[in-house]
Design goal:
Strand content: 25-35%
Order of helices and strands: HEEEHE
Distance between the termini: 48 Å
Strand order of the largest sheet: 1-2-4-3
Shape: globular
Number of strands: 4
Number of domains: 1
Radius of gyration: 17 Å
Structural class: alpha+beta
Length: 82
């Protein structure tokens, strides 16, 4: 029984190790104002993925906001930060 658990865990870890979080700036426009978003997704997930919109603090997109975006991508959710 313990051996089965170890084999299953090894499979899960191997699948997770192959996944790569891809990030990119995502410029967009609202009226005449040019804005910048941040996109992060797990490239191991194929096809349509759920999305989560995260709005950063009023002072702008920073490293903390980017890190949280990457963490959500690791949880296999595509998202865009505005």
């Amino acid at each position: 029984m313990q051996r089965i658990g170890v084999i299953l865990m090894a499979g899960v870890l191997a699948a997770h190790a192959r996944a790569k979080i891809v990030t990119e700036d995502a410029p967009y426009q609202h009226g005449d104002v040019a804005l910048e978003g941040y996109l992060a997704y797990d490239d191991a997930a194929k096809g349509k993925r759920p999305g989560v919109l995260i709005v950063h603090e009023w002072w702008g997109l920073n490293d903390f906001a980017r890190q949280k975006t990457r963490e959500l991508a690791r949880a296999r959710h595509g998202r865009r930060r505005l």
